[in-house]
Design a protein that fits this description.
The chain has 683 residues and is α/β, with parallel strands linked by helices. The chain contains 21 helices and 26 strands.
């Protein structure tokens, strides 16, 4: 066996403060070979980012590596001087951070920031630095590098900024590239393009990768081996195929059971969230760190020191009961039975449109400009149904949600909720009953909960505002019941949002929405920023509440795997218009719209034995101020049939059972398109 490029041996990392020290990583050992792609998965707080910061020497003033070694190319980084670490970061190891906006200086042009790398670390001349920068921007598929270099970060899209950060890391010619959740928050199409880029650059430069993420599908796509971390411990390690086919640690099993799959839905499989919360670092459990949350925990056996042992070639597990499959089977009460939709139509959009008037041209001359956010939307939802709206950023999903919730009035058409047209009525013009009938759960609960008030305050406020509770005593009782409904402990009512986890805050937001007893719940990307285990718990919670309340849910997302699990009907939007609509099963197999096909091909499948059709959209989405005359998708469509796509609005082709595809391609040809996903050929 060759010497590993990176070897971590018995690493211990502590954070110290005036109140004492806590151990983030107690004793970690792993290695990465040259050219290998190693994935690290786990929930927030498991120590993934701490590990990367320890490798880079960026633990901060209160972080200390108190034991062990980090060997890179045979040299212990923990013993290196500041100058040696700087040289290492310039030529040996580079890092791509989660938020490219935070990694780029907003006051400096892109070119200047990128050129700093060869100027500082290689002593290159400005001419040489510029030439290298333009070459690397070409490698990361950014068109017109000279134009990109002349822009500021805010003039680039999220995907473009992430490519710039990757280019900056590659300018150092690293042997090892560390990637910290580099696709979190990106559209599925942009995420797919970034993952493709990482794979291309790995093949071209032979760079080893350490990729940390909570998206198990990403690991299946880009990694050779996988390590699973929990509370700073490596609890399982195996090849990517082995860990998906045969997960052994109970924590890994539960992580896999939280991942949405494109071959199942809520009627055939239930998510199995991990019960409880990770223990705080200052109260680390004795023995197995996962013990307090494990259904197979045995006193006297699991509360002792447990080593990482081999259960097969290259497969290591830190569990003494991993062979007892029966201990980790789901309990009957964990299985969620979804509600059946009712016949009544609760929500209907009829030729609905939303246009923003941007005012006239310079000096008031010429016609005014308009931004078309929604145009001619037509769909409906039954009682107790989940209707999902999907599409890339800028497709008009959130605009429709704001119109539905009364945050903005529509410009044209009708929006019927329980038979009443609310299209032109903002929240202030609606009656209390109309406002209460439509409630919203936003993507970021931090931005919607007042940090100065307790978690129970907004729930109580809604009860009083809509007359759901008359007295203080009744209000307190109803708040307690709502907290119980969303699986929150009663004492959390008195905590401020800053003391709650992301999942707990989102549960408070859901409790607040259901306090008004709505007929329609609008969920705008409610789980996109959450760990996969918390995401699964929130989705199960929504399905359980929906079953008792009978609420219709409008679920807005760019995660098609999650939509496949949760939705009954799906609306696919692009640049303000509906491209395709139909039952969820119909949209995941041919015939489908070319845009839907591209979205599906971009989904990272959580199964390394499944091959996905490779379709990547080129170019940028057209401006909503100057939309194409014919099909909105024509400028990026890989199946464009000719000038008719540019000049004529496509017809709605009826595939039966409410499945409509707005496309010039005949249904017969669309039915002949190959499925997106196919099992890997044997051998």
């Amino acid at each position: 066996m060759t010497t590993p490029l990176l070897s971590i041996e018995g690493l211990r990392v502590e954070y110290r403060s005036s109140t004492g020290a806590v151990t983030a990583i107690p004793d970690l050992t792993l290695s990465v070979a040259a050219g290998e792609s190693y994935g690290i998965v786990g929930e927030s707080g498991c120590g993934k980012s701490t590990l990367l910061m320890a490798i880079m020497g960026h633990l901060g003033i209160n972080g200390f590596a108190t034991a062990g070694r980090i060997l890179f190319d045979g040299r212990d980084l923990l013993q290196a001087s500041a100058q040696e670490l700087m040289r290492m970061r310039g030529h040996g190891i580079s890092m791509v951070y989660q938020d490219p906006s935070a990694a780029l200086n907003p006051t400096m042009k892109i070119g200047r920031q990128l050129m700093e790398v060869p100027l500082q670390h290689d002593g290159a001349s400005p001419k040489e630095a510029r030439a290298r920068t333009e070459r690397i921007l070409t490698d990361v598929h950014l068109p017109d590098p000279a134009s990109v270099m002349a822009r500021y970060p805010h003039q680039l899209s999220g995907g473009q900024k992430q490519r710039v950060v990757i280019a900056m890391a590659l300018l150092a010619n690293p042997k090892l590239l560390l990637l910290d959740e580099p696709t979190t928050g990106l559209d599925v199409t942009v995420e797919a393009a970034v993952l493709d880029l990482v794979g291309e650059l790995r093949d071209k430069y032979g760079t080893a990768l350490v990729y940390i993420t909570h998206n198990v599908g990403v690991v299946a796509k880009v990694c050779d081996r996988v390590g699973v971390m929990y509370l700073g411990d490596l609890v399982e390690e195996a090849s990517v195929k082995e860990i998906f086919a045969n997960p052994r640690h109970p924590y890994t099993r539960r992580l896999m059971a939280c991942v949405p799959r494109l071959d199942h839905d809520k009627h055939t499989i239930s998510f199995l969230p991990i019960p409880g919360q990770p223990a705080p670092l200052h109260a680390r459990p004795q023995g197995c760190c996962f013990g307090p949350r494990c259904t197979g925990f045995a006193p006297g056996l699991c509360d002792r020191a447990i080593p990482l042992e081999a259960v097969a070639k290259g497969h290591l597990v830190r569990c003494v009961r991993h062979e007892r499959d029966d201990l980790f089977a789901p309990a009957p009460q964990e299985l969620v039975v979804p509600v059946e939709a009712r016949d009544e139509t609760v929500l209907a959009a009829e030729h609905l449109g939303k246009v923003y008037d941007l005012g006239g041209t310079l000096f008031g001359m010429g016609s005014g400009r308009q931004l078309i956010a929604n145009e001619d939307l037509n769909f409906e939802a039954k009682g107790g149904e989940v209707i999902a709206i999907v599409g890339e950023s800028g497709s008009g999903k959130s605009t429709f949600a704001r119109v539905l919730a009364g945050l903005q009035p529509a410009t044209s058409g009708r929006l019927l909720v329980l038979g009443q047209d609310l299209a032109q009525l903002g929240a202030k013009q609606r009656t209390p009953q109309q406002v209460g009938a439509v409630q919203m759960v936003f993507q970021n609960p931090d931005a919607t909960l007042n940090p100065s008030h307790s978690a129970g305050f907004p729930v109580a406020r809604v009860l009083r505002k809509f007359g759901k509770a008359k007295s203080g005593r009744e209000t307190r009782e109803r708040v307690s019941k709502l907290f119980e409904m969303v699986r929150l402990a009663p004492h959390l009512q008195r905590q401020r949002p800053g003391r709650l986890s992301g999942g707990q805050k989102q549960r408070v937001a859901i409790a607040r929405a259901f306090a008004a007893e709505p007929d329609v719940l609008v969920a705008d990307e409610p789980v996109s920023a959450l760990d996969v285990s918390v995401q699964a718990a929130i989705v199960n919670l929504l399905l359980q509440i929906q079953k008792t309340q009978g609420t219709t849910i409008v679920f807005i997302s760019h995660d098609l795997a999650l939509v496949r699990h949760l939705a009954d009907h799906v609306v696919v939007m692009y640049l303000g218009k509906v491209m395709e609509i139909g039952p969820v099963r119909a949209l995941f197999e041919p015939p489908f719209h070319p845009y839907t096909e591209a979205l599906l091909s971009a989904v990272p499948v959580p199964d390394p034995t499944v091959e996905s059709k490779h379709i990547r959209l080129s170019g940028e989405t057209p401006s909503p101020i100057n939309v194409p005359k014919g099909c909105r998708f024509a400028t990026r469509c890989p199946r464009k049939v000719g000038a008719i796509c540019d000049d004529v609005v496509p017809p709605a082709r009826d595939n039966g059972d409410g499945h409509l595809i707005h496309c010039h391609i005949p249904l017969e040809r669309l039915r002949q398109v190959e499925p997106i996903f196919q099992p890997e050929a044997a051998g």
